[in-house]
Design brief:
The chain is of the alpha/beta class and about 170 residues long. Helix content is about 30%, strand content about 20%. It is built from 6 helices and 9 strands; from the N terminus they run H-E-E-E-E-H-E-H-H-E-H-E-E-E-H. The chain has a 3-stranded parallel β-sheet. Strand 8 and strand 9 form a beta hairpin. It is globular, with a radius of gyration of 17 Å. The relative contact order is 0.16.
Amino acid sequence: DAYSGRIELMHALAAGVYNHVPGDGREKVVAPPDAVYVAAEPGRSIQRVNLSAFLQDDSGRFRDFTTEHADAVASQAAAVVEALEAGARALFFDESDSASEFLSGDTRLESIAGQSSRTIVPLAARARQLADELGVSVVVAGASCVVDFLPIADTILRIEKGVLTQITAEAKQV
């Protein structure tokens, strides 16, 4: 639902890591101080970041990736790697600020599209590994791209008219 409050909740969680003026409402939304909201930033500069966990090709160019003008996928992959290197223990994503092919992707079309020399390994394919091996919490919000996260999610919430409901068991049955 476009007016559910999902995007506002994600932005509030992202802002919840900062100090605030008592009584401004943010005391109701708390995030760990090592949480990072990760958005795609097309056009950003990337300097010597290993993107090989998310972008792969035969040349190895993504192991020490540098560009002055990254596309949305490379920028978001770099933001994840940089956040992890800085010690982030919780990563927040919303599909409204993300590259959809970074969050989840169907690789079946890559062989017939023939337009890219790279393979995107979506976050959905790495999220369980981030949680299990690095102890990083991954929170993904959205209406369409989140379906690939359902099988690996520990907790699934629905927000409807500003009300959060835990629906993990119901969603796992789907």
